[in-house]
Design goal:
The structure holds 2 protein chains of 2 kinds. Helix content of chain A is 36%, strand content 20%. By secondary structure, chain A is of the alpha/beta class. Chain B has one domain: MetI-like fold. Classes of the chains: A alpha/beta, B mainly alpha.
Chain lengths: 359, 291
């Protein structure tokens, strides 16, 4: 049994018509039947363009948002069956780290108070023990107890994110939903925070639901990856599978869009054209058919189901069998050969010039 | 501690009330205004001790005197000492201002913050508030005077009634802004109750906005209250109240202009000082600016 089971999650946001109250209400289908599981100690990454529903999914997993349908089971129990008291106890086990460290800390509280709050609510670490625990938490995330008396605005973005991580850790959770925890930070700080998250995972056996759109970060931290498009999971598999043998055209386009530090690399398949469609009126059939280079008539009619094509590898595409897996490494290798050839030509030309000037 | 250590030690001083005061007083105009306001308030509180004469003692032999050594601010049509009457008048005027701003502010802030937090009641509550906003304070004052009879109570009621919707609007706006930040959700994720979220997360983060608005509002309230007094809807003669004192003297405007002018100058001073202090507080109270 998986520690976290997400089954058929659906979230519709109703949007008003302003004063035109007689018109039928329309709904944004932010999340449209998402299922996945996460094992203990594992990092499951949800990736996709902004607006694809990955953050909404993360919030429903924590019961910060009420789903329109579907269920989330944590250690075998549905988190939506819990009463008020049980929910508070559950909050110990599951925590969240937000994207924007400038908005996720209460500006009125000192760092110490921010870390104390979860302990207070949960009635954990009473008295002198609490002070020690707060110091320990600050040290865990690379700060010192002296930082505890400062207010959030006195910290840098990276330090704030460390405090947010310490807050998430304070009640000793088993699952942390990381909602784009590094995308608001500088690249150099990103690496520090990602490594910190990895270290904490090894130390405490944490389970991460890692929501991101930066594939470089995902490649570094994830064990398994789920790719979302317009509220649906289109492909899911181990990191190796997704990065080297992806079968869904959308995943392939995403992989293709990752910048690679290889000079002269030519993109074989064009990156995706067009915008993400309007989620109020998503395309019929497969949501992706409007932008898919492989779309056929069937894709407009019929929504593909998530099919298991290899152990631990699921794809939702009618034509997955016909589409060759794309491997990023091969492209790099090929272009590296081209690059070497060009370097050789350049060297020869330079040798010729210097020989000429010497003569 | 030597200089190197001093630099190496992080300045871990949180913003305290003392810092806020220091920053406020660093603003020259605000410091003068704050001083003026405190002098006026203290003078009003200590009126029975300071006032040289009984504010209600009629002395027709001394009627309509211009300011001199005996009556510092002169006397009115019935020979009452204007300085003493101003001191007593400020008590009522300030009381009126403080009461309506405090009660109206608390009610309005509570309504606004609750509406922002519980989205279900938001629409209904704010439409009601919009309706109340349509009534000018003077009109409410007239209605209140018609119902309760003219008097200070009716004026305070009207001013509270007029303050609540304005404050509710401001508070809701501030609270919606605060609620859209992720720390509210973070608070919910760690299991905090609605009560704690409402107070520690929402209300305290809107407090400076609301407080500044109320300081500015204080001046307006006193102005409206004085206008109601001038119209005869407020405190009744012979009670000393600044607006009513101005109304009293208007028959002698050309003969003895000081009877009208002096209470008006005090109203002006209170309103001006309150506005300057409010403006300065807005700059000082923002926690992100307090370093």
């Amino acid at each position: 049994m998986s520690a976290l089971e997400v089954e058929g999650l659906v979230k519709h946001f109703e949007i008003g018509n302003g004063l035109a109250f007689w018109k039928p209400k329309r709904a944004v289908r932010a999340v449209d039947g998402v299922s996945f599981t996460v094992q203990r100690g594992e990092t499951f990454a949800l990736v996709g363009e902004s607006g694809c529903g990955k953050s909404t999914t993360g919030r429903m997993v924590l019961r910060l948002l009420q789903p329109s349908a579907g269920d989330v089971r944590f250690e075998g129990r549905s988190i939506y069956d819990l009463d008020h008291h049980e929910l508070r106890v559950l909050r110990r086990d599951m925590q969240i780290v937000f994207q924007d460290p400038y908005g996720s800390l209460n500006p009125r509280l000192t760092a110490k108070r921010i870390l104390e709050e979860p302990l207070e609510v949960q009635g954990m670490a009473v008295g002198a023990e609490r002070k020690a625990r707060i110091g320990e938490l600050l040290r865990l995330v690379g700060l010192t107890p002296a930082h505890g008396d400062r207010y959030p605005h006195e910290f840098s973005g990276g330090q704030r994110q460390r405090i947010a991580i310490a807050r998430a850790l304070s009640a000793r959770p088993k699952l942390i939903v990381c909602d784009e925890p590094v995308s608001a930070l500088d690249v150099s700080i990103q690496a520090q925070i990602v490594n910190l998250l990895k270290d904490l995972q090894t130390e405490f056996g944490l389970m991460y639901l890692f929501i991101a759109h930066d594939l470089a970060v995902v490649k570094h931290i994830a064990d398994r990856v789920g790719v979302m498009y317009l509220g649906r999971l289109v492909e899911e598999g181990s990191k190796q599978t997704i990065f080297a043998h992806s079968r869904h055209p959308y995943t392939q386009a995403l992989m293709n869009a990752v910048p690679r530090p290889v000079p002269g690399l030519r993109r074989e398949r064009g990156t995706l054209g067009g915008d993400i469609p309007n989620p109020i009126a998503p395309p019929s059939g497969c949501h992706f058919h409007t932008r898919c280079p492989f779309a056929v008539e069937r894709c407009q009619r019929e929504a593909p189901a998530l099919e298991t094509i290899a152990p631990g590898h699921r794809v939702a595409c009618h034509r997955h069998a016909e589409i060759a897996p794309v491997s990023a490494q091969e492209q790099v290798r090929e272009s590296a050969a081209l690059y070497r050839k060009r370097l050789a030509i350049f060297d020869a030309a330079r040798a010729a010039i210097s020989a000429e000037s010497a003569a | 501690m030597n200089a190197v250590q001093a630099i190496a030690t992080p300045a871990a001083t949180p913003p305290t009330r003392a810092t806020i005061w220091r920053r406020l007083l660093a603003d020259r105009a605000a410091a003068v205004a704050a001083l003026l306001l405190s002098v006026l308030i203290v003078a009003a509180i200590l009126a029975p001790l300071i006032a040289p004469y009984d504010p209600y003692a009629i002395n027709l032999g001394k009627a309509i005197r211009t300011p001199d050594g005996e009556n510092w601010l002169g006397t009115d049509a019935t020979g009452r000492d204007i300085f003493s009457r101003v001191l007593y008048g400020m008590r009522l005027t300030l009381l009126m201002g403080v009461m309506s701003v405090l009660v109206g502010g608390l009610l309005g802030a509570a309504i606004g913050v609750l509406a922002a937090f519980y989205k279900r009641i938001d629409g209904v509550v704010m439409r009601v508030i919009d309706m109340l906003l349509a009534f000018p304070a003077i009109l409410i004052g007239l209605a209140a005077a018609a119902i309760f009879g003219p008097g200070l109570g009716a004026v305070i009621f009207a001013l509270i009634f007029a303050t609540v919707p304005d404050v509710a609007r401001i508070a809701r706006g501030a609270a919606v802004g605060v609620a859209s930040q992720e720390f509210l959700e973070a608070g919910r994720a760690i299991g905090l109750s609605d009560r704690v979220l409402l107070w520690r997360y929402l209300a305290l983060n809107c407090a400076s906005t609301i407080f500044v608005f109320l300081t500015l509002r204080f001046g307006q309230v006193i102005l409206i209250g004085s206008a109601l007094g001038f119209l005869g809807l407020g405190a009744q003669p012979p009670t000393a109240e600044l607006g009513m004192m101005a109304a009293d003297g208007r028959g002698l405007l050309f003969l003895a202009p000081h009877i009208v002018t002096i209470p008006c100058v005090f109203i002006f001073l209170i309103v001006l000082a309150a506005n300057v202090v409010g403006d300065a507080l807005r700059d000082v109270l923002d926690p992100r600016l307090v370093a």
